[in-house]
Amino acid sequence: MIEMVIDGRKKDLGGFEVGRVLPFAQKRMVGPFIFLDHIGPAEFRAGQGIDVRPHPHIGLSTVTYLFEGEIIHRDSLGFHEAIRPGEVNWMTAGKGIVHSERTHPLRREIGAALHGMQAWVALPNEAEEIDPAFEHYAGKDMPAYEGDGLYARLIAGEAYGAKSNVKTASPLFYVHWEMAADVKSAAPGGYSERAAYIAKGSVEIDGQKVHAGQMVVFDKASPGVIHSLEPSTVMLLGGEPVGPRHIWWNFVSSSKDRIEQAKVDWKLGKMGLPRGDDHEFIPLPEDGSKPITQEPVSEAPIAHGTAPVEVHEAPVPDPVAKVQAGS
User: Which CATH superfamily includes the segment(s) 2-239?
Assistant: First the structure.
């Protein structure tokens, strides 16, 4: 059975569209997944691209996965990594990290396509304050299967008797399917919470048609059978809950006080900036005044496009605080 269907909320960011799927008012998390964005698809003209200025995270892992295009990642640990289709950038914020995401200057010159997914995975209590880390994975790190009209890649976690080499902090699964028309397959079993997001095409689940841009949350007893009605791209995700979480802007924590401290640390310039991308940053959304300047740590130039795009600048309502307030 289907527990609910969630429609992605479209947000136009100046020629670049993001579909915000999680958090949702009636379903804030699926397993440890607390945030899910469908990036694009977008076609940038020459001179355009994305410019997500340096911004901080705590208490989570960001998971970037592309179907098309490229994003350049830089972070405060010194990592500088391009992510392309079939690869994963898994950045664990822990007690705090700062990163940026931009279009490569050469791609910006000629124009390029971009399409993918970005998820946030909340860290379990015992890992919320671990040291930050970054890992890039590709190829054989992620088991894949192809046959009978289905291509499947296990991006992270364990499913179907296989295990991804992507390091995770709690039980979960994250799977990419490419389905030909009229193919049936089932979501992984053995987890408390499971969902399927349709990134392209349309499918039938439990007699209900589900379109691109929608996510189905499965009932615990559901077999999770998905029938493709046309060539479709499906992302399967879920796992075991890690407990209630506060979420504000880019900060996730089991403690509201910890989020307040992160706000102060970012405003006072205590979290550092990515090497090679340290001449600008996103201030706290609640503060319209000029933030305290952080001194650059390098002189590497940053290419700027004519149509910069930024995501995650607006605070996400805090579901935990709302429940505690009795609303």
Answer: Jelly Rolls (2.60.120.10)
